[in-house]
Amino acid sequence: DSGVTQTPKHLITATGQRVTLRCSPRSGDLSVYWYQQSLDQGLQFLIQYYNGEERAKGNILERFSAQQFPDLHSELNLSSLELGDSALYFCASSVGTSGTGSYTGELFFGEGSRLTVL
Amino acid sequence: GDSVTQMEGPVTLSEEAFLTINCTYTATGYPSLFWYVQYPGEGLQLLLKATKADDKGSNKGFEATYRKETTSFHLEKGSVQVSDSAVYFCALGVGAGSYQLTFGKGTKLSVIP
């Protein structure tokens, strides 16, 4: 058990809909990362938050947005869903971020939220 | 941009066989290199890492050496077990001290008794 909790584990929805994925990081971790895992693209970095602020952005579509709340949990919002958005969405956390503290480089991953868009 | 290329599977081995999973990278600067493992139904977890050239990461009988001259970080294990069946991901940290990781596409390993 990594200590990172993601809900829901499975989600089935229709094209055009909007969903919210939730992540609770490990106790004490300030950084949250979102990754998308699909068969053709592999693991793609979407976005990172550190202590409530956006820190880095990857291949995140404009239809997607995220935020990190004061209690450090994070939500990933996916809107106007398309068939191609079907994937496994992982949340990960780490104690620090680039330039802070001693570096471990280790990310702790949740079990993922599997999104199916029909 | 930064990228990781790893041999694509699936790879099927008999128990006690020798394992090599190749990984090469392209990066500006001096990245940190990682191997993560994903067991069925679970999230990824760190297997080993190396933060500078010629470092050797090792864990659970697996090892990999950071080779700057060949931009490689191949994963090896001398004798695999059925319990090693999983998907293995090579990754690099973008820039020194970075937690923003770029992953390879993963290699699925199946070990049969």
Task: Write up this protein.
Helix content of chain A is 0%, strand content 51%. Chain A is built from no helices and eleven strands. Chain A is globular and about 45 Å long. The relative contact order of chain A is 0.33. With 113 residues, chain B is mostly beta strands. Chain B is 0% helix and 50% strand. Chain B is built from no helices and twelve strands. Chain B has strands spanning 3-6, 11-14, 19-21, 23-26, 32-38, 44-50, 56-59, 62-65, 75-77, 86-93, 101-103, 107-112. The mean pLDDT of chain B is 92. The chains are: A mainly beta (118), B mainly beta (113). The A-B interface holds A 2, 4, 31, 33, 35, 42-43, 45, 48, 56, 58, 90, 92, 94, 96-99, 103, 105-112 and B 32, 34, 41-46, 49, 51, 89, 93, 95, 97-106.
Helices and strands in order:
The complex is a heterodimer of chains A (118) and B (113).
Chain A: E1 5-7, E2 10-13, E3 19-24, E4 31-38, E5 42-50, E6 53-57, E7 64-68, E8 74-78, E9 87-94, E10 108-109, E11 113-117
Parallel strand pairs in A: 2-11
Antiparallel strand pairs in A: 1-3, 3-8, 4-5, 4-9, 5-6, 7-8, 9-10, 9-11
Chain B: E1 3-6, E2 11-14, E3 19-21, E4 23-26, E5 32-38, E6 44-50, E7 56-59, E8 62-65, E9 75-77, E10 86-93, E11 101-103, E12 107-112
Parallel strand pairs in B: 2-12
Antiparallel strand pairs in B: 1-4, 3-9, 5-6, 5-10, 7-8, 8-9, 10-11, 10-12
Q: Can I get a quick summary?
A:
Chain A has 118 residues and is an all-beta fold.
The assigned structural class of chain A equals mainly beta
Q: Which strand-content bin applies to the residues of chain A?
A: over 45%
- Helical percentage of chain B: under 10%
Low-confidence stretches of chain A: none
Helix content of chain A: under 10%
- H/I helix tally of chain A: 0
Instruction: Figure out the total of helices of chain B.
Output: 0
Task: State the separation between the terminal residues of chain B, measured CA to CA.
Answer: 41 Å
What overall form of chain B do the CA principal axes indicate?
globular
As an assembly, this protein is: heterodimer
Structural class of chain B: mainly beta
Q: List low-confidence stretches of chain B.
A: none
How would you sum up the major sheet of chain A?
Answer: 7 strands, mixed
Principal-axes geometry of chain A comes out as globular
The pLDDT mean of chain B sits at 92
Query: In what range is the share of β-strand residues of chain B?
Result: over 45%
User: What's the end-to-end separation of chain A, in Å?
Assistant: 31 Å
SSE order of chain B: EEEEEEEEEEEE
